[in-house]
Amino acid sequence: MAKSGGHAADLSATLSALVAKGTITQAQADAITAAATAAQTAKRAAKDADHAAKDAARVAFEALISKTIGVDSATIRTRLAAGESLGAIAGAKKADLIALLVADKTKRIDAEVTAGKLTAAQATTLKAGLTAHVTAEVDSAGGKGHKDGKGHKGGRGHGGPGKGGMGAAPTNPAPTTSPASAA
Predict the structure, then answer these.
(1) What is the DSSP letter of 24?
(2) What is the pLDDT of residues 168-183, one digit of tens each?
(3) pLDDT tens for each residue of 113-147
(4) What is the DSSP string of 145-160?
(5) 103-118: b or e for each residue (b if 16 or more CB lie within 10 Å)?
(6) CA-to-CA distance for 57 and 159, rounded, in angstroms?
(7) How far apart are CA 151 and CA 145, in angstroms?
(8) CA 135 to chain centre
(9) Residue in 160, 163, 175, 169 with CA at minimum distance from that of residue 64
(10) Which of 38, 132, 138, 176 has the highest count of CB atoms within 10 angstroms of its CB?
């Protein structure tokens, strides 16, 4: 089956058929097309603005990490890509970095509770293991986007909203026995 010219072409063909049948007028078809085009343009603009906001937040967060540990962002990214952990890069300032990341994640969790995306109970559960999780992230080698040698990206990372950032999430160890063999 041949691929069509996309949504706009499909809409145009459908509207043309409706005009030919006399179901709608050409003026109505033109109004529908204009409305669909305007909606698509607005959606694209909103998506672009959202990406720009997320990128700005990520850059600001990376700058805060850089300031906290005293190493510039480019150097951090290079060292992470070389397999070094964020904790190793932070050196003596690792505790300050962990405190910063825990405070940031706590703020994000609280914002999600306020927005109604999480319950207070869920937030409490997330916060309970937060320091251990962040410490494991900071101590894991390689940054977000670090390839695992198979073309797959690494863990989620820790950073700006939706972008991850400089650190990588710890990976879960593989189970030693399968559920079938445990039975």
Answers:
(1) S
(2) 444 444 444 444 444 4
(3) 999 999 999 999 999 999 999 999 999 986 444 44
(4) T-B-SSS-B----BSS
(5) ebbbeebeeebeeeeb
(6) 9
(7) 10
(8) 20
(9) 160
(10) 138
* Angstrom distances, CA of residue 52 to CA of 49, 58, 108, 158, 163: 5, 10, 19, 18, 11
Q: What is the pTM of this model?
A: 0.57
Domains of the chain, residue spans: 52-139
28: its two tokens = 């109505």
In DSSP terms, which residues pair with 147 in a beta bridge? 153
**Average pLDDT of each block of 10 consecutive residues along the chain (183 residues)?**
68 95 96 95 95 92 92 92 93 94 94 95 94 93 48 44 45 43 43
Number of H helices, E strands in the chain: 8, 0
Structure tokens at 93: 């300032």
Answer whether 83's CB lies under 8 Å from 141's CB: yes
Per-residue tokens: 15: 């509207």
**How many residues would you count in the chain?**
183
Beta bridge partners of 85: 141
Alpha carbons 141 and 64: distance in angstroms, whole number: 20
- Nearest-angstrom CA–CA distance, 25 and 40: 23
Q: Compute how many other C-beta atoms are within 10 angstroms of the C-beta atom of residue 86.
A: 29
